[in-house]
Design goal:
The complex is a heterodimer of chains A (about 290) and B (about 270).
Chain A: H1 6-12, E1 18-21, H2 27-33, E2 39-43, H3 52-60, E3 66-69, H4 83-96, E4 100-104, E5 107-110, E6 113-119, H5 125-142, E7 147-149, H6 164-175, E8 178-182, H7 183-193, H8 197-203, E9 209-215, E10 218-221, E11 227-230, H9 239-252, E12 257-260, H10 268-293
Parallel strand pairs in A: 1-2, 1-12, 2-3, 3-4, 4-7, 7-8, 8-9, 9-12
Antiparallel strand pairs in A: 5-6, 10-11
Helix pairs in contact in A: 2-3, 5-6, 6-8, 8-9, 9-10
Chain B: H1 4-17, H2 21-26, H3 34-56, H4 58-64, H5 66-79, H6 94-100, H7 110-125, H8 134-138, E1 148-152, E2 157-161, H9 165-173, H10 177-181, E3 190-197, E4 200-206, H11 208-218, H12 223-228, H13 235-244, E5 248-253, H14 257-266
Antiparallel strand pairs in B: 1-5, 2-3, 3-4
Classes of the chains: A alpha/beta (about 290), B mainly alpha (about 270).
Chain lengths: ~290, ~270
């Protein structure tokens, strides 16, 4: 096990500032330009091998705190966790010593097959028990707290009994995990299901919020006249989501905030511009908090 | 009310086998049909995996075009979903699938190009490993040389193909139509060694005996056995080339059979 100095730990902790999701397309630009952004987050699954991705991130992390965001652990699988995958995550965590480690409140694995999407869980007592067991197992295996992210979703199950916001708050309360509050996902799911996003935010325990995600989504008009919002991370953050982000900051205080972009990835400058907008709102929040404290 | 495992199997049947019966019964319609809601997830599932295959098989993608590639990938995915979330490991079976996929039969070298691309992809994603320390090898007594077994670098693989797929692969990825036109499909078979170097992926041709000898070494056969496969070539030079290029990361020395048996009887 790598021994890390207190100074290194401090340097690698994720500040309550704006960061961007780092994808392969921007490895070289970030390594060369060293842009002015407070921290970076990468997908854990993209660094499970060796070669050039690992070499780039090894070089980049000398100058930036790094957070790891997993998409594949499938915390909600009834059949239990894929221990091989959990071990691969542990190795990536050990290699990079990330400031934050997160996974999703969803499932992807059934019958040993990986369904390559973040599938929605039924919000039931059984699912809550399963998720809590897997979060505890993961935290024990990694020997650290993880954050779990609220998903975006396009369907609800008939037999659900627990509102999603109560479900995720209960997971945090029972397991001691943190919450990665994806404000875009709250907006998308609330729009798709007719929820009130303010009610959602109000139900989340502020102390447990370790990180906030922001991303763009698209609006799909269906032939039936209904609208579905699709969380495809392919655009700038929507104006309504920025407003909800301000509401989240007012409620939770300043939190590390990440701009995600995964499809039709634009030049790095566009991501930095989005991060600058988040940074300005974080500054406003911090000033307001200081004024209140004074 | 379905148990969680029942629900997850029903969603699996919907997304993969397009059998929506059970899953739709569990889902609230709320103005949008349950099947349409499920199709959003199905599209992401297939879109993600098709993209994964496109990244691993860029030359196949160029050779057959995007529409054909997507149709072939879709069929492949239906029969062979990933067994884990580490998707760099996904798609090993695609070359064999292409060999069985009759619409692709008009491009006879396609499966072999795909096999090369899989070896390249494995090479790109293989774990890092430190090449063998030559000083340690130098310390082996001359009498033990024949019993040395090597451990190959994880990025190294060996491929024999019935078409000049290395030339096809390069010309396709470089979009060099002149080079592609100049390829003689009869310039085969080819005996290839694929390896990740610090500068990028390296695909090179070996002679048949050098390839057979190298394959034996990479399979952990002792040097004296590998040498027997290398008729007519300079094995010392071949070995020196492998070591200089960092193709081995460790070695050990086979116990003589008598000693191994003696050891076994003591245990």
């Amino acid at each position: 096990m790598t021994v890390r100095s207190a100074e290194w730990m401090k340097r690698n902790s994720i500040p309550a500032q704006a960061g961007i999701g780092l994808r392969f397309q921007h490895h070289q630009a970030v390594a060369e330009a060293r842009p002015d952004v407070a921290w970076l987050e990468v997908h854990t699954e993209n660094y499970m091998g060796g070669g050039s991705p690992l070499a780039y991130l090894d070089a980049i992390r000398r100058d930036y705190p790094i957070a790891l965001h997993g998409v594949g652990l499938s915390l909600g699988s009834a059949e239990g966790l894929d221990l091989g995958h959990l071990e691969r995550i542990r190795q990536v965590v050990e290699h990079f010593g990330p400031g934050l480690v997160s996974e999703h409140l969803s499932w992807s694995v059934v019958g040993g097959v990986y369904l390559a999407d973040l599938l929605p869980l039924p919000m039931t007592e059984e699912a809550l028990t399963v998720v809590c067991r897997h979060v505890e197992q993961t935290q024990a295996y990694l020997k650290r707290q993880i954050l779990i992210e609220n998903p975006s979703s396009y369907l609800q199950y008939r037999h659900a009994t627990i509102p999603e916001w109560e479900f995720i708050a209960a997971v945090a309360a029972r397991t001691g995990c943190g919450i990665l509050c994806d404000v875009n996902n709250i907006y998308v799911s609330s729009s798709n299901h007719g929820w009130d996003p303010s009610v959602y935010l109000a139900a989340l325990p502020a102390d447990a919020i370790g990180e906030i995600h922001l991303a763009g989504h698209t609006v799909r008009q269906l032939e039936t006249g209904h609208t579905l919002r699709i969380d495809d991370h392919s655009a700038r953050v929507a104006a309504e989501v920025w407003m909800l982000y301000e509401e989240a900051l007012a409620r939770f205080g300043a939190r590390p905030t990440l701009i995600e972009w995964d499809n039709n990835i634009p030049p790095l400058a566009v991501l930095l511009d989005e991060a600058a907008h988040a940074a300005a709102l974080l500054q406003t929040t911090k000033r307001a908090d200081r004024a209140r404290a004074a | 009310m379905p148990a969680l495992h029942e629900l997850q199997r029903a969603v699996y049947r919907s997304l993969v086998a397009r059998d929506d019966d059970d899953a739709t019964a569990y889902i609230r319609a709320d103005g949008v049909a349950a099947a349409e809601r499920l199709s959003i997830y199905r599209n992401t599932l297939y879109g993600t995996l098709i993209n994964t295959l496109r990244l691993s098989y860029p030359a196949v993608h160029r050779l057959v075009g995007p529409e054909f590639f997507e149709a072939a990938a879709q069929k492949f995915i239906e029969g062979e979903l990933p067994h884990g979330a580490y998707l760099d490991n996904y798609g090993a079976g695609f070359p064999d699938f292409l060999a069985r996929f009759s619409p692709a039969a008009s491009v006879p070298y396609l499966p072999d190009v795909a096999r090369l691309e899989w070896a390249v992809s494995r090479g790109l994603h293989a774990p890092d490993a430190t090449p063998l320390d030559l000083a340690a090898l130098g310390a082996v007594g001359e009498g033990d040389h024949g019993r040395v077994r090597f451990v190959p670098h994880p990025s190294v693989s060996l491929l024999q193909a019935s078409y000049p797929v290395d030339a096809i692969w390069r010309a396709v990825l470089e979009q060099d139509d002149a080079a592609l036109g100049a390829i003689d499909l009869g310039d085969a078979p080819v005996w290839l060694l694929i390896q990740r170097l610090p500068t990028g992926i390296d695909v090179r041709r070996l002679s048949e005996p050098a390839w057979r000898c190298t394959s034996a070494l990479c399979a952990g056969r002792p040097l004296e056995e590998a040498v027997e496969l290398a008729s007519g070539i300079d094995v010392s030079a071949l070995l020196a080339e492998h070591l200089t290029a960092g193709r081995f990361i460790a070695f050990n020395i086979t116990e003589p059979i008598a000693a191994a048996q003696a050891l076994a009887s003591v245990r």
